[in-house]
Each structure stands twice: as C-alpha cells, then as structure tokens.
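#struct-help
A.M.: can someone run this one for me? Single chain, 390 residues.
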Amino acid sequence: MSSFDQLTDRTPFFSIKYEVAHQKGNRDTLPFWVADMDLPVADPIIEAIQKRASHPYFGYTSIDPAFFSTFAQWHTKRHGVAMDPERLAPAQNVVQALQHILALEAKEGDGVIVQPPVYFPFYSIIRQLRLRRIDNPLVLQDGRYEMDFEDLEEKIKKEKAKYLIFCSPHNPVGRVWTKDELTQLIDICDAYGVHILSDEIHSDLIHKGKHIPLHTLSPKAERITTSFYSSGKTFNLAALHSAYIYTRHAEEKKAYLDLESELEIPLSQIFGMVANIAAFSECEEWYQDMMAYIQGNIDYMKEFVKERLFPMRIIEPESTFLIWLDCREMGLTQEELRRFFLQDANVFLNCGEMFGKEGVGFMRWNIATPRARLEEGLRRVEQALQQRKK
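D.P.: on it. Structure tokens below:
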C-alpha cells in the first residue's frame, strides 16, 4: 500500500483544514477545501528537520546559500530554463511577497488587473494597499478557460492599469498557459508599461502541457516580470513559511530586502530552510510518486463525476491538485449550492464565488487526499444528489 493511502488523523495537530470544516459542519464533515495535502511529506524532509531539532540552539539564524541554490537547480531541471540564484529573495509566503513587491512602487489608486475567477487573496492585497482593482475575466470556451486579450488591452488603456497579478498555472481553473498565450500577454503588457507579478506557486504540479516560467519567455518578459514561488504546494510545507521571489534586477531585490528590514520581518525560518533544501535536493522520487497519485485521483474523480454526478461537470485540470467543479446546471444559487455540499453531502469545499462573481455556480475541490477519503466524499455527494431527485 502506498504511504499516500494512509488515513491519518490530523485533528490533534491543529490542522486548519479540519478545524474549519468541523466548525462549519460537524465532526464527521470531510474537508476538501484549502490547498494543503492530506499526503505525508517525504522522509528526507522529516529527517532534515529532526536532525536540525537535535541541535539545541534556536537563536537568530542567517540563510544558508543552499536555500537558494537547491531551488534554482530544481527549477532549472523541472522547467528546462536556467535560474540565477543571485536574483532570488526569501519570503515567508507568496501572498505577503506579492503585497510587498507591489508596495515598493504602487501608489494609492493605481490600477491592478486580475483575471477572475482567481485566487481570492489577490483581491485582499489590492484592497489593503488602497489600489484600484480592474477585472479582466477569463472566458470559458468549450469547457476550457482562455484569456480575453481584447478586453485586457482595452482595460489597460482605459483604466491606465500599471500592474497585473498573474496566476500561472491558474488557481482555481487549472490552466497551463501556452507559449502563444504568454507571448500575447507579454506583448500587450510591455507595450503599455505594465509590471506583471506572476504567482507560479503551482508550477511543479503540471498534468497536461508544459509550464513556461513567464520571466523566461523573452528579454522583454524578463524585464517586466517578477515571479513568486514556494515549496508549500509541491511538498506540502505551508506551515513552514518559506517562499521565493525571482526579482527583475538587483535594484528590485535590494529595495525588497530593505523594506523587509524596515518592517522587521524575519526572512529565515530555520525549519523551513532545512526542509526546503532537503525537498529540492533529495525528494525527486517522492515528487514523482505524488504526481502519479494525484493523477490517479483526477482520473478516478473524472470517471465518477461523469457516470454518477450528473449534471455536475469537471473543468479538465491541466495543473494543480484542485478540481474546478461546474455545478451551474443544478440550478441552485451559490448559497443553496454551499448548503447542498455542506449540509446534505457533509463535505466542505471552497465556494466558487470566493474567486469572483465569475465563480458563481462552481465549487473548488482539493483532491490531494487518500483515495479512500476521496471515494467517501464523492459517495456522499452522490447520495445527496439522489435524495434531491426523490
């Protein structure tokens, strides 16, 4: 049996994933919402943390250069393009890093484009910095989301947008953007002087197509793109608060580090550091096994939904371990849909409207969980659907 099939009880260890689901529902509610895995991390990561914990000193700590070099080597191997570790800067998490890079140059009222339905903390970043949110919604064509470039260019010109927070691969719709799409995006943004902040936290979780790090596309892409990464999704290390910024140039890196120093934000988390080094240098086999397991869960859920959960439909996932579930043909309001899953089926998912009004009628389902738990969740939804039809 695969270690990923273990049905481990996470509730004694302050798991937000389970605590919130049980608060919203009951002690038997199955959580498939927030993007953390119910799959055990790789042994080399645990061993590295245990080894460091055996040294009984936990004072202020500098950053091991291997924190950057191992990630750069992993990224280069995974995506086939070189990454200069000297341009990497540390962060606690991608959301905070996005906010602080924007804060360095954006002025109150500046326009920031987002492409909903999209990861909802982007909206909070814009609001907290008192910037102006400009929506360039994705378009669903024949079951696949696409960017609306005509609308993008029009919004940039009309609204005088200066920034774009880009999601690549896209959360929650699962798109892996093609070279042609990215080239068109860069051409438009470069023409109007738009700085792109590219959230690429899911870039290792590719099922179809090939992820192209946006800054590597062309010299002008490199000039206008700041990219953001983390081990939190690939290796399930969100609680260890370690992330990376790939800066455009030395001046941006220095300005960011100066800001973090001014705010007195610590950038070295000792266990996050040693975990990342182990992850990116010793966990290739675990990664490949995890990706195969996730693909198996995708295949299982696709078949189950097709055969037994009509009228629900899955938007084909090209990346991530998050399924964007189209429930619009059920004819329910978003609140009715939320109640259906939580109260009738006793599973807790993310409601689509969290990601923007374009997400109404959709739900986001995290399938990075043991197969037996996924099967149980789907059976509960099937039973709830059958009850509705009576």
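A.M.: thanks! The domain at 57-282 is CATH 3.40.640.10 (Aspartate Aminotransferase; domain 2).
D.P.: also worth noting: The mean pLDDT is 97.
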